[in-house]
Amino acid sequence: MNKRFEIFLFIILFYLICTSIVSGSDYKVNTNAQLFILEKLKTHHIVFLGTTHKKPAILKFMLELIPALHDAGVTHIGLEITSSQQAKTDNFIQTGKKLNNIKIHPLIDCLEYRNLLAKLATLDPNMRPKTIALDLPTLKKLGKISRDKWMAWSIVKVFHKNPKAKMLVLAGNVHVLKVLNWQDNIRNQHRSMYRYLKDIMPEIRIFSISQLIDENPEECDFTEVFGSIDGSVVINCDRRFDGWKFGLSSIIAIKPTAICDLVDGIIIY
Known about the structure:
This protein has a single domain (30-147, 190-263), classed as Rossmann fold. The protein is of the alpha/beta class. It is 35% helix and 15% strand.
C-alpha cells in the first residue's frame, strides 16, 4: 500500500467519524420545560415529575412552576413526604407557621425543598393545589409494602375522593419509571408506582417525566448530546432514542429497557 493511498484512506475514515458524531443541533429541541409540563397536565390526569434530590437548578425550576399549576387545572400536588406528616403539612399551608415541624427525609430535606412548601402557602387558597404527603411512614417500612405501592395508593385515594382531580407528583427519578424490569438476582422485585396505578385505575392518563442533571456523559447519551445547550432541554421520548444510554439505568439493577418504556419525557439540565 503506497503512502498516498494510506493518506486517502485516513481522510475518508476521519470524514466518516466526524459526520457520525451526534449533537444537540441534529434534533429539534424544546427549551421551554414549564410550558411542556403545563401542556401535559392539560391532557393527562397525572404528571410524574422525577427529580434528583437537592439539586438547586431543579428545585428552582419547580419553585417557578408551582404558581402556574392552577392555569393547567391542577388540583393536587404530591410530594415525597411521609403521609404521617400530612396534618403538619396542612397546618403549615393554611397558617404559614411551623414549617420546621414537618419532618422530611434527610436525603431530600434542604432549604430549597422547604421553599416549595413556603411558596404553596403564599398562594391564594382558591388557586393553590392541595398538598398530599405521599410517602410510606417510617414505621411501615418494616412491613412488606413497597414505597411505590404506598405512594400509588396515596394517589388512588385522591381520585376516589375527587374523580375530577388533576395531579402533579414530584418524586425521585426512580419512582417515576413506568416499568421496573429487575435483574433476576434482585429479591424484592416490586413494581413501579405507574404500574400499580394503571392496574387499579386503567383509565387514568399518566405522563412520566425524568429530570437529568449532572449525569456522567459516558453513562448518559442525553447528557452527552444535549448537556451543552444553555438552560434545559425537553425531549419527548420515542423510538428515535432506542439504544441510547440513560444515566438513571446505570444506578439501578434493571434489565435493558427501551427509554420510551421507562419514561415519556426527559428534561436535561
